[in-house]
Amino acid sequence: MNKFLAVFSAVLVLFLWSCKSSDKKEVNTVEIEVNKADYTIAFGSCNKQNTTNLLWEPILAHQPDVWIWGGDNVYADTDNMTKLKADYNQQLADTSYQKLIASTKVFGTWDDHDYGLNDGGLEFSKKKESQQEFLDFLGVSKTDARRNREGVYHSEVIDLDHGSIKIMVLDTRYFRSGLTDDSIFGKRYQPNAYGEGTVLGAAQWQWLEDELKTSEADFNIIVSSIQFLSNEHGFETWGNFPHEVDRLKNVIIDAKANAVLLLSGDRHISEFSKIELEGLDYPLIDFTSSGLTHAYTRFSGEPNPYRVGDVVAEISFGLLHFDFENNTVEMEMRGENNIKQHQLKQQY
């Protein structure tokens, strides 16, 4: 009997310790404090509709005023519009995402997998039809200008008591010229010859220049599905069109718009990149947030001369907290269980 009691007591102690340890772990990994900013934008990219997204609830916990899709919002890779619609509808049926769109304004662009063609550009035969499915997914009105215009680029000014934020969403797919395969350095692509090809196309370039030159907003956010500053990894990047990189830098400098900040996705990693440009009195930052349901977990390093801090190779979403009084943006990468992975604060 005494031996039985001893064994029972030992098992009971182990059980209670296990429960206590489990509870302690949950408390330590979940951060629920919400930043009391004047305005908060959340964004992310690379979301497989067939994979459980563990980040919607952490995103909701921050009570964002805006959610921005950065591209690859579903993985369809198809020219079959029935399939594409079904993939979008599957994402729309997600109960946590339904909570987000019920409480938050949604912006977005597409990238290649929701556009329909992997690494695709202007050559995609179903881009007009795909555009309508994408706009349906975002809930865009049938009378919106994007319904009768080539490309999904769009801008909107958010006016607040403290100031204003302008969001300019680019389309880096519809007009983008062909890429140059890299058979020399073992990468997927190499930069085109300087002056060859385009990322945005003539009409969108003119639109963007006008949007920046006429902007009176305190903060100007440009959303690009592909990275702008990181240009040496050999995958898709603005760096494959070096003359287009120079053009956008010059457009930003010449426009003299306040606090221009770039958001990007695509890479299945998250990172901050920053560059000082002559003629611009603040650094230009490219905040990459990717991906929402899957990440490049085997990432072992790649060159990026503009990187700030470390690369995050785990599932991740981005946050931007705006402080109008101090003219600052506090940027965060957050992951599973709302863990803060990286942060960067910039005063303009």
Brief characterization of the structure:
This protein has about 350 residues and is an alpha/beta fold. It has eight helices and 15 strands. Helix content is about 30%, strand content about 25%.
3D structure, described in words:
The structure is a single chain. This protein has 348 residues and is of the alpha/beta class. The chain contains eight helices and 15 strands. A seven-stranded mixed sheet has the order 4-5-8-9-11-10-12, with helices on one face. It has a six-stranded mixed sheet with strand order 3-2-1-13-14-15, covered by helices on one side. Strand 4 (154-159) and strand 5 (164-169) form a beta hairpin. Helix 3 (81-92) packs parallel to helix 6.
How much of the polypeptide forms β-strand, as a percent range? 15-25%
Shape: globular
How does the helix and strand content classify structurally? alpha/beta
**Low-confidence region ranges:** 1-29
**N→C terminal distance:** 75 Å
Which bin fits the share of residues in helices?
25-40%
Number of helices: 8
The succession of helices and strands, N to C, reads: HEHEHHEHHEEEEHEHEEEEEEE
How are the strands of the biggest sheet laid out side by side?
4-5-8-9-11-10-12
User: In this structure, how is the largest beta sheet organized?
Assistant: 7 strands, mixed
How many beta-strand runs? 15
How large, in whole angstroms, is the Cα Rg? 22 Å
Q: What's the average pLDDT?
A: 92
